[in-house]
């Protein structure tokens, strides 16, 4: 009888496992780049993880940051690569940090054209400053907090993403643009253009991979394990190189307390 | 159709420009199509590079509205006729934003059919990071390309037209300048062609034209000279042609197959056929049916080895033969090769007729001479016969007077007298034939003569011969001896009767005839003028030519011995000729004969009929008569007769003696009775001498035939008193008495 019950339980577990494997897990990514670039970067990673974890992971994101955030807020995403979850409005959902994007910490930068006379934040008073969106952290929340603390009132120009913000600066349509320091370097290298930073924020950890509480812990663990193991797995090297990523490092919710403070400081 | 050099050059230039333009257009179109294809490929590539990421953005976030908007934005210019988005597996269409309507095509449908401008559908996978989110299927629209090509064609055509127009105008101007010398050359050539051979072109300064101008001028000079020579030759040929055409001879040419190639007017006149009708006919067809072997004769005529003049017969269009003399000569072509023959034929019918007429005239002349000779002979014989018959007759009368009525010798005297009378009649006929008888002409109406003799003639010819008289109304008069005319009718009627032993018809016809010179030429001794014709026609046996030739000879007869003397027609002949007329006979054996007597017409009224004196007692006289007669017997006879009737007679044998007697006779001589023809002076001369000496002397001439001394052409001069020998004693007595009794006012010598 016990054997029969044990066998039935095993079958149910297998059935449950096989059903979990058949239903892909959704993996949301914050709209830092266009959806296609995001997919370019993340689909190889997710394919790698699907293979490694044994559970298919499918990229999901909304057309805009708000949409993606809304999806996250509705709990539609099993995993999310973001830092918006640290805003107060998402505190009740229960996402947990399982890893973070490996690399140097990111900083917020306010850049101007190299020939611009603007040298200080104060000189941005009344000027047009481009931001990716109000959902951005180091490209909006951090620089806005700095401008606020500097007592500067500027004309906020939302350029949808960092690419657009720098493009407007390059075109001279704005006097300054706020982006993260890592993107600024990439943009300058890609577009062969140079900007001059008049503000650089403190360091903040890069975006985190968070897991929804409904995702089985074993799965979460295998995902976390696979993510962290990528930087040492030769098979993941081409995937990371294609995603221009150094891999992932372990992280916890506490690593992002500074982020939570900034959001709270600007009312988010 | 004529085309000018300018038009040709302009046309060729236009075609060349059109060809170049078409070639350029083809190249342009080819390049444009290739560019279009490359552009399409580039568009598709750009689509992959540009649109695909945008679509990818939308599809990654499952934003189909954005994807649709992106695609619609993509095809705002409707450059794509098909824009579809399929699922990743490529089976199900997610979005279809293909335009419902494409831009209106300006290009003709034909062009769209010709040009393969519609590219096929191109599919692009929309993927990102190795994940395929969909497949974009697009197909470019060729309307824009077609419109562009059509615009290019239109532009090229317009430009070509403008270019052609400009080029043609420029080329026309250039050609007008360049071709001016050529045009002048053409005008000069046209004038030259129109006959102005004096035209010359001025020297040209253009090196391309100058040699042509010089060559033209040289050619013109040479042609003018040659044409002048040709015109001279042509004129000569025309003259020769006119001569050949107008010549009386028939001139025709034949080819080497002896077929007629030309035919002059003389030939047309001769044979009555036109050149068109005869061209191509064989030469042998010209010969008359009488020619035995026309082909052989034609060959003979064309035989250049033995050229000869051939007398033969051609036939006219009516088929009548015509005598010609023809000769053939070879004709050579310019290279000396025998090219045919020329035939010259002359009508010799007239010549033959003239020859026949001449022969006929000669025969007539010969016959006339013969008749004249015979006449002279007969006249001479008759003269002597008359003298003898006068003696016989006179002496017979003397015997009769001396014999008693019952004397048995009186019968012999009668026989002698009758024989003498027959002999005298024969002698008279001979004299008539020889035109030596003495005529006493009067103005006669032949119709009256015929009318008066009709009954007598009917009895003469008998009942089985019908006498038909056809007197012409208004018949002219003739001067003739009535008795001799009656003699003519009698003799001809008898001759006709004898020619119709089985009966027939004798026609007497009269008519006025004007004889022209042609009649005179064809008939010897037949002068032209106005004549009265007496025709005596019978339906008898007719006569052969031989008979006709001797018809009027004395003593020529075709009758049986004893049936005719052969003097009837000879007498007629003599009377007619002595009367100034002529007689012609027309006869054919079996078809009868016609004698036509022509007597000169006179325009005076007819004389009244003379009633001869009746017989009575012989008168006596006492006057002195000088008798001159060279014949002794006649002289003696006349002496006895005159003395028997009471006259005193001086007798002489010839004129000299007579003159001597007259001169020696102191008394009156009342009458000279003299012979006409005597040795020495004639009776007429004697009379002239004596009457000159004795104006009261009256004269009677005696003769057996007429002589020039007292008659003119046999007709007795009006003043002459003539006694025809032989005469009877009574005749002499009556004549002498009559003359002596005639008042002096009525006499003349």
What's the quick description here?
Chain A is an alpha/beta fold and 268 residues long.
Greatest interface by residues involved: A-B, 18 and 14 residues
- The helix/strand class of chain B is alpha+beta
Q: How many beta-strand elements of chain A?
A: 11
CATH superfamily of the largest domain in chain A: Periplasmic binding protein-like II
Number of helices of chain A: 9
Helix fraction of chain B?
40-55%
Q: How big is the Rg of chain A?
A: 21 Å
The residue-averaged pLDDT of chain B reads: 81
CATH fold group of the largest domain in chain A: D-Maltodextrin-Binding Protein, domain 2
Overall tally of structural domains of chain B: 5
Q: Please write the string of helix (H) and strand (E) elements of chain A.
A: HEHEHEEEEHEHEHEEHHEH
Tell me roughly what share of residues is in helical segments of chain A.
40-55%
- In CATH, the architecture of the largest domain in chain B is 2-Layer Sandwich
Strand content of chain B: 15-25%
Poorly predicted regions of chain B are 608-616
């Amino acid at each position: 009888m016990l054997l029969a019950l044990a066998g039935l339980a095993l079958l149910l577990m297998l059935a449950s496992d096989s059903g979990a494997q058949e239903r892909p897990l959704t993996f949301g990514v914050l709209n830092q780049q266009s959806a296609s670039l995001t997919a370019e970067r993340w689909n190889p990673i997710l394919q790698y993880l699907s293979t490694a974890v044994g559970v298919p992971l499918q990229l999901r994101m909304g057309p805009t940051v708000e949409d993606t955030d809304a999806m996250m807020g509705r709990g539609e995403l099993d995993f999310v690569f973001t830092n918006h979850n640290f805003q107060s409005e998402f505190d009740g959902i229960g996402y947990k940090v399982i890893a973070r994007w490996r690399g140097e910490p990111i900083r917020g930068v306010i850049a101007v054209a190299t020939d611009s006379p603007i040298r200080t934040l104060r000189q941005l008073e009344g000027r047009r400053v481009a931001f990716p969106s109000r959902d951005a952290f180091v490209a909006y929340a951090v620089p806005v907090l700095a401008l606020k603390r500097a007592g500067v009132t500027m004309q906020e120009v939302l350029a949808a993403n960092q690419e657009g913000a720098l493009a407007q600066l390059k075109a001279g349509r704005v006097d300054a643009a706020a982006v993260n320091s890592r993107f600024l370097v990439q943009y300058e290298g890609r577009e062969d253009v140079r900007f001059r930073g008049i503000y650089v924020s403190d360091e903040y950890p890069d975006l985190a991979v968070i897991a929804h509480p409904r995702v089985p812990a074993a799965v979460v663990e295998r995902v976390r394990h696979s993510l962290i193991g990528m930087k040492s797995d030769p098979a993941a090297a081409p995937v990371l190189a294609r995603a221009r990523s150094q891999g992932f490092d372990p992280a916890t919710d506490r690593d992002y307390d500074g982020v939570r403070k900034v959001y709270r400081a600007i009312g988010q | 159709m004529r085309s000018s050099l300018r038009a040709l050059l302009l046309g060729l230039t236009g075609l060349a420009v059109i060809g170049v333009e078409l070639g350029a257009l083809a190249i342009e179109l080819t390049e444009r199509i290739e560019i279009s294809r490359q552009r399409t490929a580039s568009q598709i590539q750009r689509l992959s590079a540009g649109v695909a990421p945008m679509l990818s953005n939308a599809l990654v976030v499952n934003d189909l509205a954005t994807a649709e908007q992106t695609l619609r934005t993509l095809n705002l210019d409707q450059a794509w006729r098909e824009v579809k988005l399929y699922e990743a597996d490529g089976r199900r269409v997610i979005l279809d934003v293909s335009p419902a309507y494409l831009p209106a095509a300006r290009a003709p449908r034909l062009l769209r059919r010709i040009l393969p401008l519609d590219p096929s559908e191109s599919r692009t996978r929309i993927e990102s990071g190795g994940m395929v989110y969909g497949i974009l299927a697009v197909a470019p629209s060729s309307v824009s390309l077609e419109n562009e090509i059509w615009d290019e064609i239109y532009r090229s055509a317009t430009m070509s037209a403008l270019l052609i127009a400009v080029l043609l105008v420029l080329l026309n101007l250039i050609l007008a300048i360049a071709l001016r010398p050529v045009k002048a050359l053409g005008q000069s050539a046209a004038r030259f062609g129109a006959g102005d051979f004096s035209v010359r072109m001025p020297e040209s300064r253009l090196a391309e034209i100058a040699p042509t101008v010089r060559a033209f001028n040289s050619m013109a000079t040479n042609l003018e000279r040659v044409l002048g020579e040709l015109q001279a030759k042509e004129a000569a040929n025309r003259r020769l042609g006119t001569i050949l055409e107008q010549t009386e001879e028939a001139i025709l040419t034949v080819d080497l197959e002896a077929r007629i190639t030309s035919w002059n007017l003389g030939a047309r006149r001769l044979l009555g056929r036109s050149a068109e009708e005869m061209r191509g006919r064989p030469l042998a067809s010209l010969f008359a049916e009488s020619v035995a072997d026309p082909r052989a004769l034609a060959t003979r005529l064309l035989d250049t080895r033995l050229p000869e003049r051939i007398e033969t017969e051609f036939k006219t269009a009516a088929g009548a033969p015509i005598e010609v003399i023809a000769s053939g000569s070879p004709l050579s072509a310019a290279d000396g090769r025998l090219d045919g023959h020329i035939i010259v034929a002359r009508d010799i019918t007239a010549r033959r007729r003239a020859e026949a007429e001449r022969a006929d005239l000669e025969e007539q002349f010969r016959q006339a001479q013969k008749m004249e000779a015979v006449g002279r002979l007969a006249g001479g014989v008759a003269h002597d016969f008359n003298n003898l018959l006068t003696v016989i007759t006179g002496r017979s009368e003397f015997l009769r007077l001396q014999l008693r009525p019952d004397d048995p010798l009186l019968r012999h005297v009668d026989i002698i007298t009758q024989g003498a009378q027959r002999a005298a009649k024969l002698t008279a006929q001979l004299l008539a034939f020889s035109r030596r008888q003495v005529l006493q002409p009067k103005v006669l109406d032949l119709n009256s003569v015929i009318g008066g003799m009709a009954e007598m003639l009917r009895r003469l010819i008998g009942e089985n011969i019908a006498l038909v008289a056809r007197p012409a109304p208004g018949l002219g008069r003739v001067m003739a001896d009535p008795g001799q005319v009656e003699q003519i009718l009698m003799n001809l009627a008898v001759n006709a009767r004898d020619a119709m032993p089985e009966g027939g018809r004798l026609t007497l016809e009269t008519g006025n005839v004007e004889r022209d010179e042609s009649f005179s030429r064809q008939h010897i001794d037949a002068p032209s003028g106005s004549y009265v014709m007496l025709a005596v026609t019978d339906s008898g046996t007719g006569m052969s030519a031989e008979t006709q030739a001797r018809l009027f000879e004395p003593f020529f007869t075709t009758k049986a011995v004893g049936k005719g003397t052969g003097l009837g027609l000879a007498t007629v002949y003599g009377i007619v000729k002595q009367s100034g007329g002529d007689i012609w006979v027309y006869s054919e054996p079996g078809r009868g004969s016609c004698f036509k007597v022509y007597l000169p017409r006179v325009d005076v009224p007819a004389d009244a009929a003379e009633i001869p004196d009746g017989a009575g007692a012989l008168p006596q006289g006492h006057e002195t008569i000088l008798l001159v007669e060279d014949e002794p017997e006649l002289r003696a006879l006349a002496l006895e007769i005159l003395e028997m009737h009471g006259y005193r007679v001086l007798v002489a044998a010839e004129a000299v003696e007579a003159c001597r007697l007259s001169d020696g006779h102191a008394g009156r001589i009342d009458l000279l009775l003299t012979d006409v023809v005597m040795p020495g002076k004639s009776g007429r001369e004697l009379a002239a001498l004596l009457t000159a000496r004795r104006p009261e002397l009256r004269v009677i001439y005696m003769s057996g035939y007429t002589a020039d001394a007292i008659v003119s052409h046999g007709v007795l001069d009006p003043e002459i008193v003539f006694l025809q020998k032989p005469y009877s004693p009574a005749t002499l007595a009556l004549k002498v008495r009559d003359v002596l009794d005639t008042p002096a006012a009525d006499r003349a010598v």
